[in-house]
């Protein structure tokens, strides 16, 4: 195996900003996050601001764009809400804002923001995201993800940061059914899990995430760095797959 | 950039010759609640080598999940067959006190047949309690005979602990730790979520240690394997980065031991959290192997 210290990591799941509950170590600002990334061997990150998840998305979306401006190692994402309540810009304007601010992926927090993940709630938006291949990073249990994908089977969905318990009995049938379902690795810590996934399916369906600061920095990075997979797959998961997903997103 | 030469070694070759791992919390066999690719024994042995693990101390899933006697026998087979890789915990199921009594009687008999130094079968270092799943509080009198035996012989007792649990919350382990001061307790999962209480207990009680197994990721309480009543307490902190720095600063690195739950979780995942925490290399040595060396003592030379 090649020297893992030269691997390039592009982290799809990390956050900066304050928390209302005690977090022992986190990055309050984009600058602090970059310091943590340097220490943790991470080159770039697709980030969210904690206010996108724990405050109102409108607040967090504004903050993440503002705070990542001038930080080429940090790419912002925006949090999405259902359209019906009118709290979010109309879809056409949202897509235009994404283009303007260099945003190529969206995040959904259905547990924190309390909405259904189904075609009743999302019928007006998901078809557009599916057609444009805009990656949706969804923090939700796999049964909810499966419900969404049954209605929108070609949606590009990235998920997986759902805690420690190995979920492959849930996950693998979904991988076989939905071609654009991708798992990020911050919660994929079952021993030998990455290896099994690559052997049975494809490294193309995995992207690296640290889960910082929900999860301990360094843990997911070393797991992938030392996984028993070939070096091309390792680099694909560490960085290249996420680059591909973002490049494939089509904005008007 | 992380200046630790130990971290660099693990990153570049997957292990460290000068700072190996002794894993104080492992298991053997498949588990009912999930698929574990590394549960076949040969696969597990291969994984231990890759991570530079000098020894792992395991209980058997079958002993925990269903039949303690059957599983404890399976554990002993592995320990006897691979003494330089595995040590064992004897699972106590408090729902069957007559079985515990039989076990303890057999241990007493060992001393007359094997010698006074043998208070447990060869390669077995102590007991494993699983209160959240056996649904008996660790403070219950049903655990007392095993705890008295552990106290009399300074045995290790690995207790699954979980924040706000009615069976094994860190405050309950404190109660047991005070009642049996010669037994040495490992708080499995460090009382997940009730971090401040767990660290306080480890700091205050010389015979209680924090175990790092499975503490490095935010848990989704909705997806715990069936059979456990582990609480879904929203008050428990779901953000764990920096926990190890807090443990080391508050309880001291000499009160923290490495565990991975292998074959559940990657040892590199757990090692990565230790290696990329903002602590000293001396603290890393304590956590990854030195504390375990002190706790296991002569068991490490027995292989």
Secondary-structure blueprint:
The complex is a heterodimer of chains A (252) and B (303).
Chain A: E1 10-16, H1 30-39, E2 44-49, H2 50-54, H3 57-68, E3 74-76, E4 78-79, H4 91-101, E5 106-108, H5 110-113, H6 119-132, E6 136-138, H7 142-151, E7 157-159, H8 168-177, E8 181-184, H9 193-200, E9 206-207, H10 219-225, H11 231-248
Parallel strand pairs in A: 1-2, 2-3, 4-5, 5-6, 6-7, 7-8, 8-9
Chain B: H1 5-13, E1 21-28, H2 41-50, E2 53-60, H3 61-65, H4 68-81, E3 86-91, H5 97-113, E4 124-129, H6 131-134, H7 144-152, E5 156-162, H8 170-179, E6 184-192, H9 195-204, E7 208-211, H10 243-250, E8 256-257, H11 267-275, H12 281-296
Parallel strand pairs in B: 1-2, 2-3, 3-4, 4-5, 5-6, 6-7, 7-8
Helix pairs in contact in B: 8-9, 9-10
Q: Would you mind describing this structure in some detail?
A:
The complex is a heterodimer of chains A (252) and B (303). By secondary structure, chain A is α/β, with parallel strands linked by helices. In chain A, 43% of the residues lie in helices and 13% in strands. Chain B has an eight-stranded parallel β-sheet with strand order 1-2-3-4-5-6-7-8, with helices on both faces. In chain B, helix 9 links the parallel strand 6 and strand 7. The interface between A and B is large, with 49 and 57 residues.
TL;DR of this structure?
With about 250 residues, chain A is of the alpha/beta class. Chain A is built from eleven helices and nine strands. Chain A has helices spanning about 30-40, 50-55, 55-70, 90-100, 110-115, 120-130, 140-150, 170-175, 195-200, 220-225, 230-250; strands at about 10-15, 45-50, 75, 80, 105-110, 135-140, 155-160, 180-185, 205.
